[in-house]
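Need a sequence for this fold. Nothing fancy.
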């Protein structure tokens, strides 16, 4: 299992909407994540900076990257584009984080 951490940013004054759109997350998106080996997935918010910290345990980078090629993922990106930093294809601007410590 690979531990993956990344950060994104939600726009100021859009954190409540961000929470609403994730609770609950679309069932078809959840199914796609699970089908592609994603487990133990959490997103946290730093309310001072509007930085989102994502953590997921994944089976492989290839399976993780394949999620972005699904229709449901692209629909989700379109749905979220108005409330967070995105790239030209509406994917979230995301920065992978390097693990420096882990304790089981």
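Here you go.
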């Amino acid at each position: 299992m690979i531990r993956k951490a990344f950060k994104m940013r939600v726009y100021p004054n859009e954190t409540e909407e961000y929470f609403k759109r994730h609770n609950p997350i679309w069932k078809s998106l959840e199914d796609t994540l699970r089908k592609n080996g994603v487990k133990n997935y959490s997103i946290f918010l730093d309310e001072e900076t509007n930085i989102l910290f994502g953590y997921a345990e994944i089976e492989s980078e290839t399976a993780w990257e394949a999620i972005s090629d699904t229709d449901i993922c692209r629909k989700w990106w379109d749905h979220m584009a108005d409330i967070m930093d995105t790239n030209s294809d509406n994917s979230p601007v995301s920065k992978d984080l390097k693990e420096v410590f882990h304790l089981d």
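For context: The chain has a mean pLDDT of 97.
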